[in-house]
Design goal:
Blueprint lengths: L6 E6 L2 H12 L3 E4 L3 E5 L5 E6 H7 L10 E6 L2 H13 L3 E8 L2 E7 L5 E7 L2
Parallel strand pairs: 1-4, 5-8
Antiparallel strand pairs: 2-3, 3-4, 6-7, 7-8
Length: 124
């Protein structure tokens, strides 16, 4: 059996602000929510979960913030890449890095809680 990832959980300093960011910047719809977490259904039975930082810390032994991984979102065109990034910036994201490679382009942004998102356009 091959492993399948169904959830990515991100710690949120301010859950309500982070929910608003993901709803507005990425136009995600809430699947489920309580006072400590919020689930956004993506596709193919995959969920992005936002967890209140204190609740998240209970699940890990040594929580020192978000680090060590990048979430990537592929888009269909360079124009769409710029639109996604601009919209995210409008709601508080910070542009971190831009890359132009022979395989395509990407812009990495950081959300309100320091999680890195790479918006990628791959040339055909």
């Amino acid at each position: 059996m091959r492993p399948k990832i169904n959830f990515i959980t991100l710690a949120a300093e301010n859950l309500e602000k982070s929910i608003a960011f993901y709803k507005n910047a990425f136009q995600l719809s809430i699947s489920d929510k309580n006072e400590n977490l919020c689930l956004f259904e993506m596709e193919d039975d995959f969920y992005l979960v936002l967890s209140q930082k204190e609740d998240f810390a209970k699940q890990v032994n040594d929580f020192k913030g978000s680090s060590g991984f990048i979430l990537s979102n592929s888009v269909a065109s360079k124009k769409e890449m710029e639109q996604v990034v601009s919209k995210a910036e409008k709601f508080g994201a910070k542009r971190v890095k831009e890359l132009n490679e022979e395989w395509g382009d990407s812009i990495t942004i950081m959300d309100l809680d320091g999680h890195h998102w790479e918006i990628v356009y791959t040339k055909d």
